[in-house]
Design a protein that fits this description.
alpha+beta; 2 domains; four-stranded antiparallel β-sheet; 12 strands; about 20% helix
């Protein structure tokens, strides 16, 4: 009889205990403290000829590495690792701004809506995961007018090595993007989790929706 009563108490308390454990986790997940389960993190590696130089790009374990002169047997290598705080889903290479030079386009998550520089009207950035699209250029001129802080934050190299430089990054995207690709006109085609598809082109203000 006592054993039966103990089992009954366990059955009564078990759902309560489970709810006490998982409800806070679910609330944190809904608020963006964890990466969403619907996000698709790809892994791929390829070598691209850009501006007469080769770049090996490796996407693995949500991290991206760009190696200049990354062909096997190359004379030299300069390696750039994107910040580990960026959880990268996918990348594309193409001339999205139509300047006759290819750019690197990233789809990624980070615990910030604006990154190191936020609008003056935003007092405090959110410390939750949000999705972003970033555009980066291959190569970086060692211009002495650019200070070390900029170089450290945007290229990972204080000495101005010509590897990668940031061109434009969106603030947090409200849509749930599951894939990106470039069409024949080098416009960015975005597909969302709900099946919605949209096309974006680059202007001096960043990506603009094509009507």
């Amino acid at each position: 009889m006592r054993v039966f009563i103990k089992k009954k108490r366990i059955l009564i308390w078990l759902p309560i205990v489970m709810a006490a454990i998982f409800l806070p986790l679910f609330i944190l997940y809904q608020k963006g403290y964890f990466l969403p389960v619907w996000a698709v993190f790809k892994e791929k590696e390829a070598v691209y000829d850009i501006g007469g130089e080769s770049y090996r790009i490796i996407l693995k374990n949500k991290g991206l590495t760009v190696i200049k002169n990354g062909r096997e047997g190359g004379d030299s290598e300069e390696e750039y690792l994107f910040d580990k705080d960026l959880k990268i889903e996918d990348y594309l290479v193409g001339d999205i701004d139509h300047d006759l030079k290819d750019e690197l386009i990233l789809l990624f998550f980070r615990r910030s809506s604006y990154g190191p520089y936020k609008p003056f009207w935003v007092k405090e950035d959110e410390n939750v995961y949000s999705q972003h699209i970033g555009i980066y250029e291959f190569g970086f001129d060692n211009d002495k007018r650019i200070n070390e802080r900029y170089l450290a934050e945007h290229t990972g190299n204080k000495d101005g090595k010509r590897v990668i430089s940031q061109k434009w990054v969106s603030s947090g995207i409200g849509a749930k993007i599951v894939s990106i690709e470039l069409n024949k006109d080098n416009e960015l085609v975005i597909r969302e989790k709900n099946g919605k598809e949209s096309c974006w082109y680059y202007s001096c203000f960043g990506l603009m929706l094509k009507e």
